[in-house]
Design goal:
Elements (H helix, E strand, L loop, with lengths): L14 H4 L8 H14 L3 H7 L5 H12 L18 H5 L1 E3 L8 E3 L4 H7 L9 E2 L2 H11 L1 H15 L10 H21 L2 H24 L23 E6 L7 H9 L8 E8 L3 H6 L9 E6 L7 H8 L7 E4 L5 E2 L3 H11 L4 E10 L6 H23 L11 E4 H6 L10 H11 L3 E11 L5 H22 L3 H8 L1 H10 L1 H22 L9 H32 L2 H4 L5 H21 L24 H4 L10
Parallel strand pairs: 2-3, 4-5, 4-7, 5-6, 9-11
Antiparallel strand pairs: 1-2, 7-10, 8-11, 9-10
Helix pairs in contact: 2-3, 8-13, 9-10, 10-20, 10-22, 15-22, 18-24, 19-20, 21-24
């Protein structure tokens, strides 16, 4: 005796998917989508497509048929009035007179049910899928898209954007100012000159002391117990993943993003490509990606930077929360849920949560180990401490989770700054927002060889100089806006990082010469010894501020083996100094050059979450589509 499953009735399904029964879609899939949509508190159409149960193009073709509307899946004859990003935000664009309809519509979510409930179908415009409409708009007005991505911040908030003037002019002004200050000190009476020098020493001592004080603030790597949000209360989450010459790591990235523990219906993942990057485009399996993955090709334009690509996608973000992952990232699967739960209980002033970036391939080389130590000190010690004290935090370029409305209010990223993350952290602070700590790891790959490392670090330090020059145009106003301790923290982390790197070799040689070769005479008067005592204290404190955060970070991570490499850190910081001097040269010669870091070369993995890539590192051919 056999039992047949009773047929699914359209009335039992949400209207946005009920019509698919007549199109031959399996009723069991529709029931599953309806149940998941009800649990997640979203519409069933998005659930169906985002889970990969139906292709986006097939869904919208069926929607057009049931509406009796033309379906546009080829060239779209746009009329006058296309605007980026307004056209795509509305999902509605005009067509040329005489076309199949006056308008083309790409409805999403609950708007589909409203469209199906319209009493008069004669007024229905032509239908296109959102992906096809977006691709057609990008192809029709690429100059508008490129201009928006590159210049919107400069148009809306020029005082917060990288200056259009050549960097050489600003550096010349800075050099003249320093020269004038030195000349003034030389012309002053000896007591006044000594007082000015001691004031400078005290300022740098305060910056170093700020880093050391951060060691006393607890910031465990494991998150505290946080009540998770119910599925229906979770917000839509946008993930931006800029890719440029990243074919080798595309399979791993897709695997990591697919492993995220978050409702598929509430994920909006945008993979951003450059127009001339055919290799990465070929590595993306577009035909099999669920609709929650959207591949966006950014129109050609200058500058060729990561923040420009992010700006092109920001207006299209559908999530209330947004994060950025780099191509080589392996985020903890529960990171989005934890961030959403923390945002829900934090005040609106907390606009950003910075995740913990963890170097995963520390076993590749001594350089990679030093990089891992540096990151541990920064992301497991300093940044969490500053965040807990409400001080400015220079963000990492990845795993910073933001309230999308705040990011849009700040007009996105500075496309002309090659360290856009640190700049955004400072702009958040200047706008009165706070950055919180997100104790969730994202595993990253560090350059294991000197050449790639030097190129990457030169770019980072060049961007810190750009940020310093940009926000140093109004130093007093910005200091008043931040507050005293906050301004000191910002100065220590942005221009202070560059200044200390530039001065480190000179200070190291001078200290070694003074301590090992010369005698340090003691003057009979206390004040005469004060400058020398401050210099010795500053050197010791500065060295401790560089080394101790790494040791504490290792202790928090349980990296006893890695802590043994800490004695090499003074030598490592000589390489950082070399990168700082190269950054000044590159700032003048090529301010917008983006030194690309090649990924997919890691041979070791401390976490076990990254595949070994010895063959790729040795130059062996590799199929980028291999999982």
């Amino acid at each position: 005796m056999s039992f047949q499953r009773p047929p699914v009735e359209p009335a039992a399904l949400p209207p946005e998917i009920a019509f698919l029964l007549a199109e031959g879609v399996d009723g069991r899939l529709l029931i599953r989508a309806a149940a998941e949509a009800a649990e997640a508190g979203t519409d069933a159409a998005t659930t169906l497509m985002n889970a990969g149960l139906i292709a986006e193009s097939a869904y919208y073709a069926a929607l057009a048929r049931v509406l009796g509307a033309p379906y546009l899946d080829g060239p779209i004859p746009f009329g006058l009035g296309l605007r980026f990003p307004d056209t795509l935000v509305a999902g509605l664009a005009p067509l040329v007179p005489g076309s199949v309809a006056p308008w083309v519509l790409a409805p999403r979510g609950r708007a589909i049910a409203d469209l199906l409930d319209m009493p008069g179908r004669a007024a229905v415009p032509a239908i296109a899928s959102p992906t096809h409409l977006r691709e057609a708009v990008f192809a029709a007005i690429p100059e508008q898209v490129a201009d928006y991505a590159a210049h919107e911040l400069r148009r809306r908030a020029p005082e917060r954007a990288t200056a259009p003037e050549p960097a050489l002019r600003w550096l010349a002004v800075l050099a003249l100012g320093l020269t004038a200050a030195l000349c003034l000190c030389a012309a002053l009476p000896d007591p006044l000159a000594r007082a000015m020098m001691m004031a400078g020493q005290i300022l740098f001592l305060a910056m170093a002391a700020l880093r050391i004080a951060a060691l006393a603030i607890a910031a465990p790597v494991a998150p505290e117990a946080v009540t998770p949000l119910a599925e229906a209360d979770l917000p839509v989450y946008t993930i931006l993943a800029p890719l440029h010459r990243e074919a080798a790591v595309v399979p791993d990235l897709l695997k990591a993003l697919s492993a995220l523990d978050y409702p598929a219906a509430k994920l909006d993942i945008k993979l951003l490509l450059e127009a001339d990057d055919a290799e990465t485009a070929a590595a993306l399996p577009r035909d099999t990606l669920p609709a929650r993955f959207e591949v966006i090709t950014v129109p050609p334009g200058e500058p060729r930077t990561k923040p420009r690509a992010l700006n092109a996608a920001l207006p299209l973000a559908r999530g209330a929360l947004l994060t950025v992952y780099d191509a080589e990232d392996v985020p903890d699967p529960g990171q989005l849920r934890l961030a959403a739960a923390l945002f829900a209980r934090l005040p609106a002033r907390t606009a950003c949560l910075q995740g913990r970036l963890v170097i995963d391939n520390a076993g590749d080389s001594r350089l990679a180990r030093a990089f891992a130590l540096e990151y541990s000190g920064l992301f497991d010690v300093l940044n969490p401490a500053f965040a807990r004290c409400g001080l400015p935090v220079p963000l990492g370029g990845t795993s910073m989770h933001l309230r999308t409305r705040v990011l849009r209010a700040l007009h996105g990223w500075d496309a002309h700054n090659v360290t856009e993350d640190a700049d955004l952290g400072l702009r958040l602070a200047l706008a009165g927002y706070a950055v919180g700590d997100l104790p969730s790891p994202t595993f990253e790959e560090a350059p294991a060889r000197l050449g790639p490392w030097l190129g990457q670090r030169t770019r980072w330090l060049k961007g810190l100089v750009q940020t310093s020059l940009t926000h140093g145009r109004r130093p007093l106003a910005n200091a008043r806006s931040l507050g005293g301790l906050e301004a000191l923290c910002a100065a220590a982390l942005v221009p202070g990082t560059v200044a200390s790197a530039l001065a480190y070799p000179v200070c190291l040689v001078a200290a070694a010469w003074s301590f090992l070769v010369l005698d340090i005479p003691a003057a009979p008067v206390f004040l005469d010894n004060l400058s020398t005592g401050l210099a010795i204290t500053l050197f010791g404190t500065g060295l401790a501020a560089l080394v101790l955060p790494a040791l504490v970070g290792c202790a928090r991570r349980g990296w006893g083996d890695l802590a043994q490499s800490v004695p090499w850190m003074p030598i490592y910081f000589l390489l950082v100094s070399l990168a700082a001097w190269l950054a000044l040269i590159e700032l003048v010669r090529a301010p917008l050059r983006w030194n690309k870091t090649r990924h997919g070369l890691a041979r070791t993995s401390r976490s076990g979450r990254r595949r070994r890539r010895h063959a790729a590192a040795c130059g062996a051919p590799r199929n980028p589509a291999t999982p």
